[in-house]
Amino acid sequence: MGLFSSRSTSASLSIIAKGCRTIGNIESEQSIQVDGFVQGNIITDAEVIITPTGRVQGDIKARLVLINGLVEGTCQGGEVNIQPKGKFKGTMQTQQLTIEKGGLLIGENREIVEVEKVTKLSPNNQENEPKSKAS
Fold first, then answer.
1. What is the rounded CA–CA span in Å between residue 106 and residue 118?
2. Mean pLDDT to the nearest integer, 105-126
3. How far apart are CA 19 and CA 94, in angstroms?
4. What 3-state class would DSSP assign to 127?
5. Angle at alpha carbon of residue 48, lines to 45 and 49, rounded to 5°
6. Which domain of life is it from (predicted)?
7. Pick from 64, 55, 56: which is nearest to 13 by CA?
C-alpha cells in the first residue's frame, strides 16, 4: 500500500494542532478538532472537539460539541458534552448537556426552545362574501 490510500473517508476532520495559535473565525462543513489555541468563532454542521490541550476564546456553533479542554465564550449546539478535563466559561444554549465527573461549567445553560409560528386568523368579513341580488 502506498503513502496515499484509495479509500475515501465519509467525514473529514480539520485539526488545529498542539502549539498552533489561530486568530480568526473558522467555518467548515466537517468536524474540527482543537488541540492548540483558537481566538475566534468556530461554526460547523458537524462536531467540534476540544482536547485537553485545546483552548478556545470565542463562540462555538455545532451539532455536537465535546469539551475536554478550555472554552471561554458562548456555545450553541444540539448536544454538548463537558468531559472530565473540560471547562466551559460563559453562556451555553443546547438541547442536551452532559457534564462528566471532573467537568466544569461556569456560567449558564439555556435550553433551546423551538418556537411555533402562529398565524392570526382575521374575522370573516361580509364584504368579502358574494352578495345575492334581490329579485
1. 36
2. 72
3. 30
4. helix
5. 155
6. Bacteria
7. 64
Residue 134's pLDDT band (boundaries 50, 70, 90)?
low
Q: CA-to-CA distance for 62 and 42, rounded, in angstroms?
A: 8
**pLDDT tens-digit series, residues 18-50:** 999 999 999 999 999 999 999 999 999 999 999
- Find the helix or strand (DSSP H, E) in which 39 lies: strand 37-39
pTM higher than the cut 0.90:
no
Question: CA distances (Å), 105 to each of 2, 9, 19, 54, 109, in order?
Answer: 46, 34, 25, 16, 9
Cell representation of residue 129: 362574501
Class of residue 40 by CB neighbours under 10 A (exposed 0-12, middle 13-18, buried 19+): middle
Q: State the pLDDT at residue 6.
A: 39
Quick one: DSSP state of residue 134? P
